[in-house]
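Q: What residues go here?
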């Protein structure tokens, strides 16, 4: 995986760390990052020598979510001229999320900074989530006229319940690390200066642990909580494609690019 442009993969004994590496964009997902991350996740999942996986971000963010520059002309378009977000989700994003959930080894999200939109979905797809004290989580889709995707409509409510999931999805407000811990979105919050050491210690513990036991635990939890995950991902993709054709989405992207409040018309 040495030829990956936007993702770094490194080995530490029996553990692999996948690092999103577009720090100049706060690790926003463009087409290349999607392709690279899928290759990285698939590679570590298939490597029997890897017994634990860490996912983190380079620089000061975990991931700022989708790179809206891709959604304003660079991505493939539908016959109607709208961004083909369904194709992106089903062919690129969903295999990443499902591979993380089904690989027979533990996955630790090391949330070193903001985890936003699809970046939050990526973190919550992991088995354990450790956040730096300065990090925050944001289900930002509503702020540009979209709906949660990448599995977040499944992962958020299973962690925090209906009321808080609705609040996150409809209000689109930042959840700081302390509140994320209180709500159950993350497992641990660590002071920034101790974050790297805590992640390394937990990584090494998982890599030296009973891998088959971890895999069995994942199968049990997936069966109980996420048995309809594929169906939910398809629903997200269908609804997101509807949203991508709406005037509110066009206004949301324009407002984001122009750094102004959106003027949604409810259409």
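A:
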């Amino acid at each position: 995986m040495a030829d990956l442009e936007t993702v770094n993969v490194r080995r530490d004994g029996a553990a692999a760390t996948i690092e999103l590496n577009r720090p100049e964009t706060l690790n926003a997902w463009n087409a290349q990052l999607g392709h690279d991350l899928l290759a990285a996740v698939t590679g570590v999942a298939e490597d029997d020598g890897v017994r634990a996986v860490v996912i983190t971000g380079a620089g000061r963010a975990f991931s700022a979510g989708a790179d809206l520059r891709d959604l304003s002309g660079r991505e493939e378009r539908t016959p109607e001229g709208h961004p083909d977000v369904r194709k992106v989700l089903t062919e690129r994003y969903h295999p990443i999320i499902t591979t993380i959930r089904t690989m027979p080894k533990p996955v630790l999200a090391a949330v070193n900074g903001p985890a936003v939109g699809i970046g939050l979905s990526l973190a919550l797809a992991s088995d354990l989530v450790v956040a730096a004290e300065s990090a925050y989580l944001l289900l930002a889709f509503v702020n540009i006229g979209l709906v949660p995707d990448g599995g977040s409509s499944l992962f958020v409510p299973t962690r925090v319940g209906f009321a808080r999931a609705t609040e996150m999805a409809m209000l689109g407000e930042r959840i700081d690390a302390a509140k994320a811990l209180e709500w159950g979105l993350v497992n641990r919050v660590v002071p920034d200066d101790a974050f790297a050491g805590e992640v390394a210690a937990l990584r090494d513990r998982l890599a030296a642990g009973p891998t088959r036991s971890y895999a069995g635990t994942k199968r049990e939890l997936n069966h109980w909580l996420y048995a309809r995950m594929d169906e939910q991902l398809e629903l997200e993709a269908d609804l997101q494609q509807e949203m991508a054709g709406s005037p509110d989405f066009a206004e949301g992207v324009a407002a984001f690019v122009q750094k102004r409040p959106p003027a949604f018309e409810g259409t």
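A: Context that may help when evaluating the design: Strands lie at 7-12, 15-20, 52-57, 107-111, 115-116, 128-132, 136-138, 175-176, 188-190. The first helix runs from residue 31 to 46.
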